[in-house]
């Protein structure tokens, strides 16, 4: 029987098989942010185990609330900062920081075939490189930091073949919303999703990161895209000394493709040729309608950012719609480029100017408004159009409502003050 991508990665990393389908895997990366890692650090210190398995494989960033907004968040940042310095862990502090799942890919920290953990549910994002990347709780994070291993049940895999041709103005965000609507919020629980097919092959790394990012919203442990020349091109600045040429890198990474006769829990065919821009309407990410159905819904705030859609590709699309336009005066527009790289490029390309002239506030790279912690918290009863990944009740502020959508739809919605299709989508 052939193997799925996750099965191949498990086989290559297994250090123990304590019982049945539980496997202890060696870790290639342990990522840390200031919300969940300080709890693990404090506990490790209290237990006299303030050690790390391999400082070069651990990376840390302050991203959720940055710069600190109060004493509590300042302390969280300080714990992570002091610990990183003490152990020689590469650390991204104010001025060089951004959303973990945007900055770590940008730095080339993830490679095909890697195992990655982090105390964050959207760690699945890094599966876009053909890695097994999973969010974990405090105990697993502590063990990972200390010993460089993590125990997982060998997951089954759902393969989704995305076929057809996307219409102009329809993006990876619409595809993943369609997938979540189809699977339901628990449809892939304890499973891995492989995103396959010509549409995914045609996607940039940014678009693949958007797909993998929301795998967890269907319950998936990880969302994996297959490594190909797009992956190699993206990683090339970081791997060029390891390979004679790009073809050699591609050949090496191809060992992380699934076998033709791999055994899947389910194989889903999704033809996206007729797909329209989508938007969520309720408090669960599988509550999805077409933008057309939701057209005219007034919004108070439009947020463009996050680990889902705060990358340079997203900023370019939104800016192309906002150029020369003004957002409605009933709307507060907030854009948070997700990483320093995206911010710097957006500045250089004049995109930040486009956003500002349209009436947006441009913030530093941070999670901020995405989870209602800073930089754009909603008041009760307010409605946001947002390029983020979660629309849970109160997610962006107690009593607030969030409609998830693509950056193109968000930009168009900001101009109208009401949910609407972008001019790029011709129907
Ligand atoms: C704060 C963190 C633990 C949380 C997560 O795990 O996802 C956050 O990033 C989120 O998106 O809600
Ligand atoms: S941007 Fe939002 S979803 Fe992503 S890690 Fe930050 S809070 Fe979580």
From TrEMBL:
Alphabetical UniProt keywords: 4Fe-4S, Amino-acid biosynthesis, Branched-chain amino acid biosynthesis, Iron, Iron-sulfur, Leucine biosynthesis, Lyase, Metal-binding
Pathway membership, UniProt: Amino-acid biosynthesis; L-leucine biosynthesis; L-leucine from 3-methyl-2-oxobutanoate: step 2/4
Q: Name one Pfam family in it.
A: Aconitase
Which family does this protein fall into?
Belongs to the aconitase/IPM isomerase family. LeuC type 2 subfamily.
Q: What is the lineage of its organism?
A: Bacteria, Pseudomonadati, Spirochaetota, Spirochaetia, Winmispirales
Q: What class of enzyme is it?
A: lyase
Q: Which prosthetic group or cofactor does it need?
A: [4Fe-4S] cluster
Q: List each copy of the Aconitase/3-isopropylmalate dehydratase large subunit alpha/beta/alpha domain by range.
A: 7-293
Gene3D superfamilies in alphabetical order: Aconitase, domain 3
The role this protein plays is: Catalyzes the isomerization between 2-isopropylmalate and 3-isopropylmalate, via the formation of 2-isopropylmaleate.
Record gene name: leuC
Which EC numbers does the record give?
4.2.1.33
Could you tell me which InterPro entries the record lists for this protein? Answer: Acnase/IPM_dHydase_lsu_aba_1/3, Acoase/IPM_deHydtase_lsu_aba, Aconitase_4Fe-4S_BS, Aconitase_4Fe-4S_dom, HAcnase/IPMdehydase_lsu_prok, Homoacnase/IPMdehydase_lsu, IPM_dehydratase_rel_enz, IPMI_cat
Binding residue positions for [4Fe-4S] cluster: 307, 367, 370
Assembly and partners are described as: Heterodimer of LeuC and LeuD.
- Record text on cofactor binding: Binds 1 [4Fe-4S] cluster per subunit.
What reaction does this catalyse?
Answer: (2R,3S)-3-isopropylmalate = (2S)-2-isopropylmalate
Q: What is this protein called?
A: 3-isopropylmalate dehydratase large subunit
């Amino acid at each position: 029987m052939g193997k799925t991508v996750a099965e191949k990665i498990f086989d290559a990393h297994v250090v123990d098989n304590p019982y049945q389908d539980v496997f202890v895997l060696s870790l290639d990366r342990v990522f840390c942010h200031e919300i969940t890692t300080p709890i693990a650090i404090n506990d490790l210190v209290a237990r006299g185990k303030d050690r790390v398995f391999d400082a070069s494989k651990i990376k840390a960033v302050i991203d959720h609330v940055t710069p600190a907004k109060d004493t509590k968040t300042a302390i969280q940042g300080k714990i992570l900062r002091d610990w990183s310095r003490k152990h020689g862990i590469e650390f991204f502090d104010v001025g060089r920081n951004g959303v973990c799942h945007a900055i770590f890919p940008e730095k080339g920290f993830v490679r095909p075939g890697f195992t990655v953990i982090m105390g964050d549910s959207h760690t699945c994002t890094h599966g876009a490189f053909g890695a097994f990347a999973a969010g974990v709780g405090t105990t697993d994070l502590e063990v990972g930091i200390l010993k460089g291993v993590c125990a997982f049940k060998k997951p089954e895999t759902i393969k989704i073949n995305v076929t057809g041709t996307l219409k102009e103005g329809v993006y990876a965000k619409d595809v993943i919303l369609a997938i979540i609507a189809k699977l339901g919020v628990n449809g892939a629980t304890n499973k891995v999703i492989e995103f396959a097919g010509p549409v995914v092959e045609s996607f940039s790394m940014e678009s693949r990161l958007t797909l993998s990012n929301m795998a967890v919203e269907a319950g998936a442990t990880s969302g994996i895209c297959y490594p190909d020349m797009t992956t190699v091109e993206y990683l090339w600045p970081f791997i060029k000394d390891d390979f004679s040429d790009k073809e050699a890198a591609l050949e090496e990474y191809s060992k992380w493709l699934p076998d033709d006769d791999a055994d899947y829990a389910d194989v889903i065919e999704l033809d996206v040729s007729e797909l329209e821009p989508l938007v969520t309407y309720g408090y669960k990410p599988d509550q999805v309608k077409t933008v057309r159905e939701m057209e005219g819904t007034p919004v108070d705030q439009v947020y463009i950012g996050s680990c889902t859609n705060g990358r340079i590709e997203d900023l370019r699309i939104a800016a192309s719609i906002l150029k020369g336009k003004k957002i409605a005066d009933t709307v507060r527009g907030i854009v948070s480029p997700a990483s320093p790289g995206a911010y710097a490029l957006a500045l250089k390309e004049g995109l930040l100017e486009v956003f500002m002239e349209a009436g947006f506030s441009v913030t530093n790279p941070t999670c901020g408004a995405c989870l209602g912690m800073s930089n754009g918290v909603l008041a009760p009863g307010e409605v946001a159009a947002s390029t983020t990944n979660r629309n849970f009740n109160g997610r962006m502020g107690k009593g607030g409502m969030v409609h998830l959508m693509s950056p193109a739809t968000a930009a168009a919605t900001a101009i109208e003050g009401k949910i609407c299709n972008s001019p790029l989508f011709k129907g």
